[in-house]
From TrEMBL:
WD repeats lie at residues 249-281. InterPro entries: Beta-prop_EIPR1-like, EIPR1, WD40/YVTN_repeat-like_dom_sf, WD40_repeat_dom_sf, WD40_rpt. Residues 285-318 are annotated as: Disordered. Belongs to the WD repeat EIPR1 family. It comes from Aegilops tauschii subsp. strangulata (Goatgrass). This is EIPR1-like beta-propeller domain-containing protein. Residues 5-281 form the EIPR1-like beta-propeller domain. The keyword Lipid metabolism does not apply. Transmembrane segments: none annotated. The lineage of its organism: Eukaryota, Viridiplantae, Streptophyta, Embryophyta, Tracheophyta.
Length: 328
């Protein structure tokens, strides 16, 4: 294990930031979006690009955003589209935005608000895009409900086509959309993880009695997910057998807040925590892994799964993206 930090620093943010997302639709370069969280000042969205071969991050666009940004996701099929969840008066709102053509301008023009996701009456937690390819659906999650939207960015329209209720569950706090099945989504509550079938808007399975803070589907292997948990750090699960996790990784010395698979090398996992550290793991899960390998039913641990620990941070870290060169 190595300590310290060998990453590249972007110093262009004037205010605190809690959200970062990679712009996967921009195949020609490595770009990211970061959103600020300032209570008193005007907030910003930064379009950040990694200069090839120069190990330098530059700002390609800086855009005014009217409110504190609590969730930020880039559209996987159009690099100029993204969604935000933000404070709105006494509540929360969500919108899809379009980045204007920049044409080398030094002063970035304003973002174009395409549409709002305004059917929510409870606190909105996050917006989900289906990760692979073009899809005309969008998911938004609030404390008590999951909404499936039909979207048409070209006509600036969005319409709710179905809704699922959390019923007696604790409040929903986030989720992830299965890249291998556009009818499957996972949602996080304060004490469990629930899996939904979007065709019926009913829950199909669950991991109970787990204080999960984040979930991510393996982009290469079906039925495999990673969770970030308070008590157990990082756990890898097979959705076909949820009685026990496949593997445990130690996680962090305090809460493990975020977990992400590398989109190309799925055995690489990045995690972030409130211990001001970011950890890079090697977590091998074979296609023939079918559950715990010990007689006691406990998950397996690798002897040295931690490849690198980035520790030169002063504050808690709430978001990560792959590749692991840009972290907040």
């Amino acid at each position: 294990m190595q300590g310290g930090s060998s990453g590249i620093v972007y110093g262009g943010l004037k205010y605190q930031a809690r959200c970062i997302t990679d712009v996967r639709a921009d195949a020609g370069s490595t770009t990211f979006l970061a959103g600020t969280l300032s209570l008193k000042e005007e907030n910003e969205v930064h379009l950040i690009r990694l200069l090839p071969g120069e190990n330098e991050l530059v700002c390609d666009g800086l855009f005014y955003h009217p409110n504190e940004i609590w969730d930020l996701k880039s559209c996987p099929f159009d690099h100029r589209l993204f969604s935000t969840v933000y404070t709105s008066g006494e509540g929360y709102g969500a919108s899809v935005w379009k980045i204007p053509e920049l044409y080398g301008q030094s002063n970035s023009p304003q973002l174009e608000q395409l549409f709002m996701l305004d059917d929510h009456t409870d606190k909105i937690r996050c917006v989900l895009w289906w990760p692979l390819g073009k899809h005309d659906k969008l998911i938004s999650i609030d404390d008590r409900n999951i909404f499936l939207w039909n979207i048409d960015p070209s006509n600036k329209s969005a319409k709710v086509i179905s809704q699922g209720s959390a019923d007696m569950l604790p409040n929903l706090r986030g989720g992830a959309w299965d890249p291998h099945n556009h009818n499957a989504v996972a949602t996080i509550t304060d004490s469990s993880l629930h899996f939904w079938d979007l065709r019926s808007m009913k829950r199909s399975n669950a991991i109970e009695h787990a204080h999960i803070r984040d979930v991510d589907y393996n982009p290469k292997k079906q039925n495999i997910i990673a969770t970030a948990e308070d008590e157990f750090g990082i756990r890898l699960w097979d959705l076909r057998m949820l009685k026990h996790p496949l593997k445990d990784l130690p996680g962090h010395s305090h809460w493990t807040w975020a977990v992400r698979h590398n989109p190309e090398y799925d055995e690489l996992i990045l995690s972030a925590g409130t211990d001001s550290a970011v950890n890079l793991w090697l977590a091998k899960v074979g296609t023939d892994d079918s559950g715990p390998e010990s007689p006691s039913g406990s998950p397996t641990r690798q002897e040295e799964p931690l490849l690198h620990s980035y520790t030169d941070y002063e504050d808690s870290i709430y978001g990560t993206v792959e590749p692991p060169d840009l972290l907040f």
